[in-house]
Structure to design on (305 residues):
């Protein structure tokens, strides 16, 4: 099975602390690297995680609050200093484009690579990125500014051909793709070997949902249903529910309700308020609703399976 991992770089909220950094993650899927949000300090966190961040092909920015995008212009500048030539794609709310262009004119003169901006309509659930092996969908969220999450979803793959069957029937390499596509095999003696004997089922497609800053949305579970892993902001606990509602954030209880109703495999909590020195209180609250809840932390690598 091809790697599908999430590298947690920062999981704090607006105020960076000595314990947690601003929001940033790298989604590694089938050899490709995608950066999700880019808060202040992301470059240093990438180096600490030993991620070859020059291989990042696209950046997805959920919304225009500084703890989710202040690190972007610095990283683009560093790419220029490192001699990057590969195109960098940026997917973000439309309002970021003029700001980013002005910053690049000021600080990134003479880049040898192109930065291609893709405006994301944060009010629509749609595919915003697609290649041969995966899609990325926007997930409309409700925050104080236009905001969306992102759903990374593998495309279905073909069945696996059994190596012992290849050897037993001396099947040539030229016929392997045909058999994966459903063909039977006919031997020189005229025996028809059914496809079901030649193959094993394809791996189930995996998915990862990233739900950035948002107040609780009762219908959000419909968009992330069945995700293997769900990251959902959990800035506060229920004792601070009024503060959560005031600032359009979620509690750990809220996040767990989304995970439970969506029947996801695992829930990752994050975007912790700086008021918590110990997030175990948030974890306990979430696990009371959804037992497969876990705290995210800087440097953590989560396997999506």
């Amino acid at each position: 099975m091809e790697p599908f991992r999430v590298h947690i770089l920062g999981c704090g909220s607006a105020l960076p602390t000595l314990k947690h950094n601003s929001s940033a993650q790298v989604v590694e899927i089938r050899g490709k690297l995608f950066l999700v949000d880019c808060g202040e300090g992301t470059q240093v966190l990438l180096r600490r995680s030993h991620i070859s961040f020059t291989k990042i092909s696209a950046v997805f920015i959920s919304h225009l609050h500084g703890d989710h995008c202040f690190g972007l212009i610095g990283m683009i500048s560093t790419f220029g200093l490192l001699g990057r030539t590969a195109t960098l794609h940026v997917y973000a709310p439309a309002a970021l484009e003029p700001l980013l262009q002005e910053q690049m004119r000021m600080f990134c003169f003479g880049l040898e690579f192109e930065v291609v901006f893709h405006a994301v309509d944060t009010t629509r659930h749609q595919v915003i990125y697609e290649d041969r092996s995966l899609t990325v969908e926007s997930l409309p969220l409700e925050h104080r500014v236009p905001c969306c999450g992102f759903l990374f979803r593998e495309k279905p793959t073909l069945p696996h051909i059994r190596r012992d069957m290849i050897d037993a029937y001396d099947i040539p390499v030229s016929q392997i793709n045909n058999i994966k596509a459903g063909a039977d095999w006919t031997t020189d003696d005229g025996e028809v070997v059914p496809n079901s004997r030649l193959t094993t089922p394809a791996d189930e497609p995996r998915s990862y949902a990233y739900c950035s800053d948002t107040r609780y949305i009762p219908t959000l579970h419909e968009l992330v249903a069945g995700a293997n892993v769900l990251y959902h902001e959990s800035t506060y606990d229920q004792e601070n529910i009024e503060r959560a509602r005031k600032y359009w954030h979620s509690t750990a209880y809220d996040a767990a309700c989304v995970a439970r109703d969506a029947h996801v495999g695992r829930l990752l909590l994050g975007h912790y308020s700086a008021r918590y020195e110990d997030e175990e209180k948030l974890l306990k609250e979430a696990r009371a609703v959804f037992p497969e809840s876990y705290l995210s932390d800087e440097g953590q690598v989560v396997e999506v399976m």
